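Input (structure):
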């Protein structure tokens, strides 16, 4: 088994292996690449497209898609924009617990599952009942590739 996450910077590809249990479990057959940063959505879309040529999926970091002053509808709108600008590249979500956590609601998880574009999500939910709701929301969508 090989689990790897690569990230792309202006200086080229950088290896960033994440050996947490959840990453290793999900990455058994995929190579993921971190592909977002805070700021311009068109630049993020270009980076997603670039890493999509090199990896099985491009990872969107949840706290990089909208500012914390912007609400969930703005986050969803920005993700939808990125999806339109990047064709059919499979996507993943990586929720960072620190330094700024942008957790997704159950409705947001359902929306990403319904999109058919997301193959991976790393969640940092700490409440078991909320995590169960998110899992149910994602798995209730027939044929969703979200894992």
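Output (sequence):
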């Amino acid at each position: 088994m090989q689990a790897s996450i690569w990230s792309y910077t202006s200086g080229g590809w950088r290896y960033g292996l994440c050996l947490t249990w959840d990453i290793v479990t999900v990455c058994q057959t995929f190579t993921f690449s971190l592909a977002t940063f805070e700021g311009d959505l068109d630049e993020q879309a270009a980076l997603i497209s670039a890493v999509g040529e090199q990896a099985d999926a491009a990872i969107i970091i949840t706290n990089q898609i909208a500012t914390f002053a912007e609400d969930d509808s703005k986050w969803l709108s920005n993700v939808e924009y990125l999806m339109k600008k990047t064709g059919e590249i499979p996507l993943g979500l990586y929720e960072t617990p620190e330094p700024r956590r942008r957790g997704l609601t159950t409705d947001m998880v359902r929306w990403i599952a319904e999109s058919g574009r997301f193959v991976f999500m790393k969640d940092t939910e700490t409440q078991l009942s909320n995590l169960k709701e998110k899992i149910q929301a994602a798995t209730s969508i027939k044929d969703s590739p979200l894992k």
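Notes: The longest helix spans residues 72-85. The helical segments are 21-26, 41-52, 72-85, 106-115, 128-139.
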